[in-house]
Amino acid sequence: MAIISDGEKFKSEKTQKETRENICAKTTDYDNCFETNIRPKSFDEYIGQSQLKETLKISIEAAKKRNEPLDHLLFYGPPGLGKTTLSSVIANEMGSKIKTTSAPALEKPRDIIGILMSLKKNDFLFIDEIHRLNKIAEEILYPGMEDFTIDRTIGKGETTRTLRIPIVKFTLVGATTKAGSLSGPLRDRFGIIHKLEFYTDQELKQILKRTASIINAEIDEEGAELIASSARGTPRIANRLLKRIRDYAVVKSDGLITKKTAQKALKLLNIDEYGLDITDRELLKLLIEKHNGGPVGIETIAAALGEDIKTIEDVYEPYLLQAGFIARTPRGRKACCNAYEHLGYKIPSAQQNFFTD
Ligand SMILES: Nc1ncnc2c1ncn2[C@@H]1O[C@H](COP(=O)(O)OP(=O)(O)OP(=O)(O)O)[C@@H](O)[C@H]1O
Ligand SMILES: [Mg+2]
To answer: In the chain, what is the straight-line distance between the N-terminal and C-terminal CA atoms, in Å?
Structure first.
């Protein structure tokens, strides 16, 4: 069986891992500084997700007219699609301040009580990875979300009493890559729940041009088109690729990112025309070469690739599923015809039947 894998051999494993960590959709500390400059601040700058933006604009306008805080919002979807960005855009549009935290930082009751009590009227509270909130934190949050109160238990034994303390009206924004892991009662308390979709190449091109103008990168139309189509429908990946390719263009040519420079740089980064990186291709090869196309359990995939299950599920799989390279079945993941074709393997007839039946 022939395997197409451009330039894979000349890189050491370490460099390959560093490269994919720099390019994949996971966040890093480095990103946080870079992202502050390029993060859209208003709906006008926030490209794509048009239907979602329209619905949100109506809710915002209605809340403003009623002079009330916006309903609690929950955004879910794969990493890098703009959940955090959208949350701060909405707070800006409401003219409110946003306090940002994440569920793992709210381990003790005092953490969540402290943050709820520190809110000012109409503030936004953004909780990232909200599916990781523990039961106690969730239970403190329920009356906070519903009635803007906190129930505190004081005293011990027979003298135990519950005190109901009022807090200000606020809007909670939860973000998660795993909507399915959120508890039912918590999910039910959000008035507005939305999934963020992958971006079209056209939208990513617009995002790239905007970022290029902020970071003073020179890019032509075709260069932007190529990067957009290699960015797996994800703005964070598009922006990261832009930076890496800009470096390449500056060092190896005159600084202008053309289609040709972008092609060469992407080859060096081991990213193919579908935006798949080494890990994506290893995952597909694993299914096809070692397991006859699958189904293969997620634990086996994670162990074979040396990644954790969460990373495979949250970072790699969503795009492979949406682009039709793999399918999820009750017994595990299967490679689809697209995967065979893309990697240059002959599609077994059993596989053809499986996906056309
Ligand atoms: N609609 C958009 N228009 C322009 N740029 C965007 C858009 N959405 C996201 N971005 C850019 O992509 C980067 C990643 O977005 P963001 O951090 O909001 O993703 P996220 O969904 O919160 O990811 P994670 O799940 O990892 O927290 C941001 O720095 C932002 O600049
Ligand atoms: Mg985020």
So the answer is: 26
How many C-beta atoms surround the C-beta of residue 41 within 10 A? 12
Encoded amino acid at 249, one letter:
A
Give residue-wise pLDDT tens across range 16-65.
Answer: 555 555 566 666 555 556 677 899 999 999 999 999 999 999 999 999 99
**pLDDT, tens digit (0-9, with 9 covering 90-100), for 231-258:** 999 999 999 999 999 999 999 999 999 9
Ligand 1 pocket mutation, candidates 43, 236, 310, criterion most atoms within 8 A of CB: 236
Output the pTM of the full model.
0.87
pLDDT of residue 27: 62
Kindly list the structural domains of the chain, giving each domain's residue range(s) and its CATH number in brackets, ordered by start.
Answer: 49-195 (3.40.50.300), 200-268 (1.10.8.60), 276-356 (1.10.10.10)
The best mutation among 32, 39, 239 to test binding of ligand 1, ranked by most ligand atoms within 8 Å of the C-beta, falls on 39
State the angle between helix axes of 29-38 and 235-252 in degrees (0 to 180), rounded to the nearest 10: 90
Q: Going by CA atoms, what residue is nearest to atom 12 of ligand 1?
A: 236
Output the average pLDDT for the chain. 90
Cα 118 to Cα 128: distance, rounded to the nearest angstrom: 18
- Which residues, at least 6 apart from 174, have a Cβ–Cβ distance to it below 8 Å? 72, 73, 74, 75, 127, 130, 182, 186, 190
Phi and psi at 242, nearest 5°, equal: -55, -45
Q: What is the mean pLDDT of residues 196-207?
A: 97
Give the phi and the psi of residue 278 in degrees, each rounded to 5: -60, -45
SS3 258: coil
